[in-house]
Amino acid sequence: MSTNIRPILFIVVSAILFTFGCATKPPKIVTAPKPAPETVAPPKPAPAPQPPAPAPEKKEPEKTMEPVTPPKLIAEPKSTVPAPIQTEKQAPRTTASLRLTEQGRLLIESKKPDEAISILEKAVNIDTNNSQNYYLLAEAWFMKGNQKQAREFNRIAGTYLKDDAGWALKVQQQKERIDKASGIK
User: Fold this and answer.
1) Which position among 21, 90, 155, 175 has the lowest Cβ density within 10 Å, counted as fewest Cβ atoms?
2) Quick one: DSSP state of residue 162?
3) CA geometry: angle at 170 spanning 157 and 12, to 5°?
4) Tally of domains in the chain
5) Residue 74 has pLDDT above 50, yes or no
């Protein structure tokens, strides 16, 4: 599922700028009126619209009754990356950051760590208190094989998420994977 995120990012940034009053109307440019030409030709009448031609009738082939087998339902694999937590009422910056966090999480699941890192860094710049971004950044850097960066973001995530038992466990498990890949026991 490939999505072009540029339009989404443009909308999110525009909404943020509008919300915080950073977007302003461009100044109105006033120019002197142009002198009217001396003679003006009368406008030509528009041609009368032609009625559309009737569409040729399509003859559908006769359908035969064949047994329909229902499609097989395949369970999607469970993600190792948790989805961000959202509350009902949030500040626009938090909402924008959470949307980017979700995009980053989906990119990680799609095995696109470079794109995920780019999106997650934007999310961190919008809302530095969204601690899940640090966990996901550690995951993306780990996927790229950069254990040093992964370890640093894992450390930051651990600092922010230490009071949430579920997240603290995930951060600890991530740390263990990073240490194992680095050869640290």
Assistant:
1) 21
2) T
3) 55
4) 1
5) no
